[in-house]
Amino acid sequence: MIKMKQYLSLGGGVNSTALLLLLKKQNIEFETIFVNHETDLPETYKYIEYLKKKGFKITEIKPNYGGYSSLYEYCKFRKFLPSIYLRWCTYRFKLQPIWNFVEKPCIMFIGISYDEKRRTLTKEQYGKKYKKARGITPKYPLVERHLTRNDCIKIIKKAKLKIPIKSGCWICPYQSPKNLKELYIKHRDLFEKLMELEKIRGNAHTLKKRPVQYYVPWGMKPLNHYCDELEK
User: Tell me: the pLDDT tens digits for 28-46?
Assistant: First the structure.
């Protein structure tokens, strides 16, 4: 029987960091992979470097879609916004780079906590949803052990590591008002990049039966409309 290689998909947030610690504690052999598409929050990249300095070996994968490794630069070139209707950005700049990198067949450990168990997929469901992922068996140790996000925080604290921020892209159109406010305050340069993308977008005219796409799907107004409010 051929032993399948095992991987951990690390996002740099609480759940996947706790899973990294859990697997290490159990002496499970696996390779930790992190996809660097250059649009995670700066705090996430700092945390990945922090883990490396703590002795964790992390393999960084760079996407290559249309010659672009940066999701932002690709959107700027194509005059796109990441879509709230079709999550092509996740597929092309996060999932595909992983599928292209791993040696199949393999096992992929995914950091979904018990309170998000509805997001889990069986091997059959995973392969049916993503044809290029066939040969990958997803496993969810946090769900199997009924470990919630709060449990994950406890695991990280017990290991005496810093607690990471919630992982997520600063370019994501699903950001909440709170997320956008924090981005505006902490990373004004990135907020201004979002406004730039919104101004040059070209895909609004192709969404024939859909409303014009802005970065604030819950408000349907351009970002600059909210600047005065955010400033307050």
Answer: 999 999 999 999 999 999 9
Phi-psi region of 31 (alpha: psi -120 to 50; beta: other; left: phi over 0): beta
Q: Domains, the chain, ranges and CATH?
A: 5-158 (3.40.50.620), 177-231 (no CATH)
Bridge partners for 58 per DSSP: 32
Chain centre distance of CA 172? 10
* pTM given for the model: 0.90
Contact assessment for residue 166 and residue 14, using Cβ atoms and an 8 Å cutoff: yes
Locus of tokens 């504690």: 25
The DSSP secondary structure of 93-104, one letter per residue, reads: IIIHHHHHHSPS
> What single-letter amino acid sits at 32?
T
Strands across the sheet with 5-9, in order?
A: 58-61, 31-35, 5-9, 106-110, 136-139
C-alpha to C-alpha distance for 180 and 186, rounded to whole angstroms: 10
How far apart CA 159 and CA 8 sit, in angstroms, is 18
- Residue 131 sits at the vertex; the CA angle it makes with 127 and 136, to the nearest 5 degrees, is 45
Task: Write out pLDDT tens, residues 186-231.
Answer: 999 999 998 888 888 754 444 444 455 666 655 667 787 777 777 7
Measured distance between the N- and C-terminal CA atoms of the chain, rounded to whole angstroms: 63
